[in-house]
Amino acid sequence: MTVLGVHVVQGPRDKYGDFLKQLADAGKHVVVYALDDPAPLREAKEVLGDAAALTVLRYDKLRDADGEQQDLQGVNPERFGHDAAAAARHYMDRCLPVWEDHRDAADFFGTTNEWSNFSPFQHAFHAACMDIAEARGFKLALYAFSSGNPPEEFVGEDFVANCRRMKARGHVLSVHEYGLVESGRLRDGVPFHAQRVAHLYQAVLAPRAADPDCIVTEFAFGGGLYDPDTFLDNVRWYTENVLRRYSFIVGGTIFTLGNWQGGAANFQDKLIDLANYITSLPDAAPDDPLIQPPFVYPTVSQPPRAVERTASSFELGSPVRGIPFRITDPFDTPRPYANGKHEGIDIRCFDFVNNRAVEILAPADGTVVVARRDDTPERDYGNFVILKHRDGFFSLLAHLASMAVEAGQTVRRGDVLGVGGKTDADAIHLHLTLLHADGLTGYYTHPLSPVSRVLNPTPFFDPSLLEE
Prior knowledge:
468 residues; 2 domains; 9 helices; Glucose Permease (Domain IIA); TIM Barrel; eight-stranded antiparallel beta sheet; alpha/beta
């Protein structure tokens, strides 16, 4: 039975005690995820009883023996010479003494948070953390993937092996799902954000017997901000279509109670309404098979006015050096700006073997029109380059860590433009927009773009790249 509950950060949570008491009086269960503060977990255990309160505790930062504050949301592999076991020992040495004080409050202890790395180092780090935790009798909530992650191409055998072990040893997988689309509603984010976890389990994990219990430790409207007008509608939809639909999900917590971003996400005034909803739910979830046909990701066809690819037309080569060409987020996927759709594609630009970002290459012959840091508030591209190609085509390549070209410079296909990065982005990747005067309208285009229409870049790439 999936349990619905709340995510809590430090700060005000008026009526939290009344919320718990109402659930206890109705004989209901609750799941509570707390950041940096075990008090709401302990209160849930005291009011509902240990068996009826599923609890998770995670710390963002802790001080080491020297008093230095350590960020626990991720790990820099270079600090430990890419030794994942050493990194795990250092990380767990910070956590274990504090966790020991709160065994009575937490069923699971969270490790990293939205650490968008997806490298062999990360998976080895989590495996080593499990070793250390199991020796001390702790159960972990691992990964805490950000909404829309992990990309399919990063779900390799090392991650699957970790999931098998999580299932066998009683750890849980932690994921986040948000309504990161223009409307902010979770239902409009299917299948790239909401229900992404269902696709991960149905298409990859369950068929390989690597399906541990899962807790959706954050879900909410938009990117987490509280919207009173849509709060209960979002909660109802997500509970009925995700949390209570799939047997592998054992809990889901709504983000958030407390003082995150000055209280802009705090839904404390809806706690009693939430309690009323939870008490109205039947104890048994709807019968629904775990394994269903995987999502078919939509393909986007261009309207007749748009430029069409022909055998002799303009062609793009791979813009990344030394690694396979992989599109990690396609054209037209939901976005919270402009017409609500992705104006280009995202491409992997990280070498997981050597644990570094790779060089970004010119995808076709052309002239550099722009090479600069983005300073527009509408859409942050970080360091970006715009190239002018033949036949009226332009390409924009964004989020580079550094740039090796200047405006006015002539480049040939395969010339180095810079190094991939994540400037003004959450994770290392390359964003590419293809522009043409006969393209599609309504999409975001940068103010410095010579034209304001875009094309789906995918059909213009060398076909051999798409077959790899």
